[in-house]
Structure to design on (163 residues):
């Protein structure tokens, strides 16, 4: 019941980070999403976790609250999620003022984890109004062919994202 899950023969790999790590190990491709240098790899993993835990999680709480039954709403949790997201976006704003990609000058697994910024911008708040550098970073992400392809493939399902 976890999403996503990769099955490779008898091997099941849950969650995006694990899947990327597994594919990089078993089927290395032309784009290296995790650097060989241990310090650079640490920075990538740190940013990957940051985006998952501090951007994606509160964004998902905010959007998920919109489909909760009226008698199950969580105003306190929703306010906490908004504050957590604002704090995280403030940190991303500072980082993106000095960096091209989430973990430096090269696209990496950390930038894959930043994909929820698309939904933050689409549904929660327009990023450009408050987070100019985050909005410019999202624009760079959207222009990457792999990211653009993922968005194109997601188009039929965007109608189901609660607004």
């Amino acid at each position: 019941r976890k999403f996503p899950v990769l099955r490779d023969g008898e091997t099941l790999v849950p969650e995006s980070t694990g899947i990327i790590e597994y594919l990089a190990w078993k089927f290395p491709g032309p784009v290296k999403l995790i650097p060989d240098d241990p310090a650079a790899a640490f920075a990538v993993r740190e940013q990957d976790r940051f985006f998952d835990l501090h951007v994606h999680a509160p964004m998902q709480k905010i959007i998920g609250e919109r489909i909760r039954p009226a008698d199950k709403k969580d105003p306190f949790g929703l306010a906490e999620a908004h504050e957590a997201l604002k704090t995280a976006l403030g940190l991303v704003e500072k980082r993106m003022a000095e960096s091209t990609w989430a973990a430096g000058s090269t696209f990496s697994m950390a930038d894959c984890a930043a994909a929820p910024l698309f939904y933050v911008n689409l549904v929660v708040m327009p990023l450009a109004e408050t987070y100019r550098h985050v909005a410019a970073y999202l624009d760079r992400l959207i222009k990457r062919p792999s990211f653009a392809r993922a968005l194109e493939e997601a188009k039929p399902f965007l109608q189901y994202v609660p607004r």
User: Anything to note?
Assistant: The longest strand covers residues 5-8. Helices lie at 16-26, 38-65, 75-96, 109-113, 116-124, 132-143, 145-154. The chain is about 60% helix and 5% strand.
